[in-house]
Structures are given as structure tokens and as C-alpha cells.
Amino acid sequence: MAAPNRGRRPAGAQGKPGRVLALILIAMVALTGGMFWSGHTTPRLGIDLAGGTTITLAAKAEPGKESAINETNMNTAVEIIERRVNGLGVSEAEVQTQGRENIIVNIPKGTNSEQARKQVGTTAQLYFRPVLTVAAGGPTAPQPKPSPSASAPDKATDKGGADKATSPSPSATTQGRAVTDGLKAPSPKPSGSAADKPAATPPPPGTAALEKKFTDLNCLDQTERGNVGEGVKPEEPTVACGKNSAGQWEKYVLGPAAVSGKDVDDAKGQLDQQRGMWIVTMDFTSAGSKKFQAITSKLSQQQSPQNQFAIVLDGEVVSAPQVNQTLSANAEISGNFDQQSAQDLGNILSYGALPLSFEEQSVTTVSAALGGEQLQAGLIAGAIGLALVIIYLVVYYRGLSLVAILSLLVSAALTYSLMALLGPAIGFALNLPAVCGAIVAIGITADSFIVYFERIRDEIREGRTLRPAVERAWPRARRTILVSDFVSFLAAAVLFVVTVGKVQGFAFTLGLTTLLDVVVVFFFTKPVMTLLARTKFFSSGGSWSGLDPKRLGAKPPLRRTRRTSAPTDPKEA
User: Fold this and answer.
1) pTM to 2 decimal places
2) Cα 548 from Cα 50, distance rounded (Å)
3) pLDDT in tens, 106-126
4) Quick check: helix, strand or coil at residue 472?
């Protein structure tokens, strides 16, 4: 006769519930500590709750050029729009892609929404302008003139690497970049060095007003930088700001635009294998080649800084390379590039030539007062929903409601800490639909408890005592909970993928809380039930425990152990 397996536990039994509880408590402490350590103790609020303007832009391509809408170009557009928004002096603005064709711009309260719409809704303006004067970024004395103490220009080489530029003064700051013709053999250049050329006085800006604007211009001020080129036509001279290779702001007087971004056929940053350096190559259209040849022919005869052309994007100089030879259809910019800076400049040059524009799909402006009211209404709705769930649990499940309430509190703590941490980590912002998702999640989480409690009650109705009932009910409840949560998570994932805008906030919150529901049920609710089943209050099946066999209609007699002891009283024998 085989000996019984005394070490075998019932199906679903959990031998060390304390260890499992310790895991989730450690996770809660870690998340809470990370929240306070990062300094983000509250979730970031979306525009509809904090107040501000949300602008949704949809990319549009010219007929036959739909391929222009791709990830690279959309990311470049995001960078350009960020530059524009930052030019308004906006802090904490967000610009991000959404889906394949949409860009969402969130501008916090305190910003002129009309000015913001004007800035982000127009196509990027890219021009090549000759440099007339360069000076340090702060306000300067009247009658600006180029001098060796000002930032020196970039220098030009041929594409084969032969240096064509005069070395800048040791005291000058230089971007160290060169424009070349793309040929391996050096192109002819004017005889003599830059020092041998006749001294050139920079042409006057043209009007006293422009000269005064240049002297008064303070490129160190973000707002002033953003507005410096506003309203200037391409055929007019202007002033602009830009950074040199040392990261210092400089200001420029620029001549009329000689080449536009539409004249660039293609541009990209790439690694020159022969020289082991990153460069930016440019190909011009037929019309663009003629324009570029004409302007570089003139610039190559000038002294620094008038042998530079500025690449100007939305009024800001993104690069100002030096020219010492006539260039035409193909050119490259070389110098102190790394991979990122070369690719960024290539993208900017390409974007100016793309048939890509943006159409304003929607604009939503919410005042700070209205946002506060909506947040308050959302919190009240959540509190009412939570209170109704708790009342139902207390009335129907009595003592078991303690387990459900504790589980809800754990779920709420995990959700709050994760939302606070996800704000700075991935840019998550709690908007009104996200609050709705959190409210819906209360019901989903409570439903998991109810499934488990009802399975336990079913086992008690079959005549089992509480401890085996808790363990035997778990495998059946676990399957139901996982299937239910999988369906909810799948719905949230599909909703997140196929929608744009604020609806994604609802989908994200619903998916997050659904995953947390699984974590809480497995790592908190089940271990707590295992521990409570060992207490006298619950194991005795009192009327207030919620597990009274009589109230549940248990089958009499209650199932007992099959082994019976032999009678010890002789009278009973």
C-alpha cells in the first residue's frame, strides 16, 4: 500500500505568501522613493487640465510626392517647430509626432496662442544669404564693422580636402566649416591669399533703421531672437542670430536671399571614408545651380566675413560656411561636424526643398480656470465612483471588503507613482480622457476581486472549509481574471494605435491600470487571502466575515476528513 504524499499541497496553494507580499511592498517603496528623488511628486497635467493651447497639424504632400511624408522628415519638422515655439520664449512646450502624418503641439498657459498658431502652422523658410557683418551676440556700438576680434567665418576647401581658406586669426572664433565644389581635384581659385585681397569694407546695411536694429539686437535674449526676422521679405537685407562652434551667440547683417530652400534638390550628412570626417553634401536643382554659382562667384572674391553665406532657417542662422571658390550644382560643407550635427544640418537643408506643408486640423485653447474646474470635476467623479464601489463591497462581501479596499489602495498608489514618473520619462501628461480611463479602471480592478471572491464562495458552498477553498478557487479565478484583463488590454492597445489626440490618453491609462490590476491581484490580493484564511475571524465563517456557510447555502454536512478514529469508550463499542 502506497504511503500518502503528505508534502503535496492542494492545486493553487501558495506556501510563502509573506515573500510575495514583500516583493510588491518593495516595489511600492522603490517607486515612491524614485518619485520623491526625481522631484516629480505629482503627475504632469495636460493642456485641458492645466490650461493652454493644443494644436494638431496634419502633413500634406504635393500630388505625386506622397513619399515625402516619412519618419525622417516628420522628425525634422518637429525640430523646426520646436525652434519656432522656443523662439516665443515658451517653457515646457511639447512638440511630438502622433501617428504617421500628425504633429501635436502643446503650449502651456501664459503664451499668446494666436502668435503660436502663426509660428507653427507655416512652412519652414530656408534661405542662403550673403553675410555682410558679424559681431558678438550682445548689443554693440553704432557703425558695426568687421574686425579680427569678431567671430571669424567658416573656411572653404575643395571636396577632395585641399584647404582653400585663409587661417583665421588665433583670437577669432570659427565654426571651422568649409564649402566645396564636390570635386576630387582642387578647383581654381583667385590668386593670392585672403590677406592679399583688397581690403573690403562691409556694405552698409542699406538703411539707418536696419543698422540701428543690428546695433541694438541682443541675441542672448530668447524672445528677441525669435522675433528678429519677422516680416522680412527674401529680397530685403536683414539681421539674424546664430551660434558658432563654441556655442556662443553671434549676430549678423545679411544681404538679400540669393538661393531658397526650394533650390536644394537633396542634402544629407554622411561620413567621408577617405578623410574620416563627417560632411554635408548638397545637390541643387538646375535653377538653383545657376543661383548658387552666381553668389559663390561673388563671395569667393571677398574678405572675411563677406566671403560667407548664411544658411538661414526661419530667421536663424544654422550655419555660415566660408566660400573661396565658385561652386555650382554640387557642394559639400565640411569642418567640425560630428554624426549628429552633420545629419541635423542635412535634414534641415533637405526640409527646405521638400514639398511638405502642414494643415491645421484642430486648435483647442483652455483657460487655467477652466482646466482647474475640469480637474476638480474629474477627481469628484472618481471619488464618487470609488465610494460606490466600496459601499457595494462592504454591503455584499462584509469582511472580505477589507481585502478589496486594501487592494484598491495598493493599485491607486502604484498608478499614481507611475504616472508621476512617466511624465518626465516619456512625456506622459494626465488629461481629462486619461482621468476617465482611471475611473473606468476602478471597476475593472474591483471585478477581479469579485471573480476571486465568488470562486471562494463556490468552494464553500461545495462543503469545503476556508483554507482549501481559497487555494482551490485560485486556479479557476486566475484564468478568468487573465482572460478578462487580456481583452481589456487588447482593446486599450488597439484604441491607442488607431486614434490620435486626447483619446490616446484614455487608452494609455486604461492599458496601464489593466496591467497593474494583474500585478495587484497576483502579488497582493491572493497572498492576503491566504494569510486571512488562517485567522479565526475568517476561518470560523462568522456572519460578518462574508464567508458564512449557512448564508451561502453550503451543502450539509460540511465535508470532513475521511479518516475516522476507532471508538475509545467501551460503552460506544
Assistant:
1) 0.56
2) 50
3) 877 755 556 666 666 666 678
4) helix
